[in-house]
Amino acid sequence: MTQKTNFYIWNDDSVASCAELLKAGEVVAFPTETVYGLGADASNPNAVTKIFTAKGRPADNPLIVHVSSLAQMEEYVTDIPAQARKIINTFMPGPITVILPSNGVIADNVTAGLATVGIRIPDHPVAQALIEATNRPIAAPSANLSGKPSPTSAIHVYQDLHGKISAILDGGSTGIGVESTVVDCTGGVPTILRPGGITREQLEIALGIDIHVAKPDVAELPSAPGMKYKHYEPDVPLVLINGDEHFFQEKINTYRSEGRKVGILISEQLANALAADLVQVCGSRDELATVAAHLYQALRNFKTEDVDIILAEVYPETGVGEAIMNRLRKAASFIEIQ
Ligand code: TXA
Ligand code: MG
């Protein structure tokens, strides 16, 4: 079934219109500082169902709830442990989500029936204005078709979800480019379930303890349902290349000698050293935030009519590099040549 999708440019009137749609139980895509989200009223299960339908998202993968203040967060949880409070005070609003015990106010299909709820306060004027104007908790996964790279511009949302949602609120490109860090705060020591915009190092400094990052191979654990699904898949298969430029060029040449058209996803540092059929430069190794910001756009730029395979550079897993490599490994289905 196709529906009319209104495309709004961000201003006070369009925020008000989109807030009305959300209050009426419709779904609206909007920008956050990480990626675009597909929002619905998290207290309205019928509205939330529309998110799962539009994205083709499995019902057992819970959604993040977006709020505009700590006071609003407290309305949906039974407890905010001391470490979680520190995280909230230090990093919110910002690209981080805390998993807390739910008090049941948030609809069951948002939390996929779990006793916990993931909540964050986005640091983006459009997201904040929309949440405030709606005056409801807003459930919002990334606004892509399930399994595709997350959207970092309104055009990406349009490409994936046009005809399936009520509105897209265009607030320009998102800044950070990878999703929020998801931190489970329900146990004794906070654990990172998904690396993201706030780095492990930042969390360790703020909390004064070592923080563990859950490995994707513990994915089947019910505490981290989102980890077991395929994610961030470009249209073309992707393989990670872990080696120097000579090694990388050799691999390109091997695929080309088999008659395959090769796309490469690399940093500025490799751009002059390598030759391939399509070169996507996504940022600088010396400034990994630039890679994070352009990663999903670069993945979306590889089309089946242009290339048969993507070979991607491996980045250091420090700072936001941890989130970049988490997404690239999933995009590669964990295939790495070294
Ligand atoms: O930056 C972001 O977080 C973006 C923007 C739109 O806010 N949202 C986002 O949502 O990335 P989504 O649905 O694509 O990813 C949410 C992740 C999933 O891996 C999900 O399994 C996990 O958070 N999650 C949500 N609630 C959870 C819970 N109660 N327990 C464990 N994991 C949870
Ligand atoms: Mg997502």
TrEMBL record:
EC number assigned by the record: 2.7.7.87
One Gene Ontology cellular component: cytoplasm
InterPro entries named among the record's database cross-references: DHBP_synth_RibB-like_a/b_dom, Sua5-like_dom, Sua5/YwlC_C, Sua5_C, T(6)A37_SUA5, TC-AMP_synthase_SUA5
Main location as per UniProt: cytoplasm
Entry superkingdom: Bacteria
Reactions performed catalytically: L-threonine + hydrogencarbonate + ATP = L-threonylcarbamoyladenylate + diphosphate + H2O
Signal sequence bounds: none
Keywords for the protein's UniProt record, in alphabetical order: ATP-binding, Cytoplasm, Nucleotide-binding, Nucleotidyltransferase, Transferase, tRNA processing
Gene Ontology molecular function terms on file: ATP binding; double-stranded RNA binding; L-threonylcarbamoyladenylate synthase; tRNA binding
Function: Required for the formation of a threonylcarbamoyl group on adenosine at position 37 (t(6)A37) in tRNAs that read codons beginning with adenine.
UniProt name for this protein: Threonylcarbamoyl-AMP synthase
Organism the protein comes from: Amphibacillus marinus
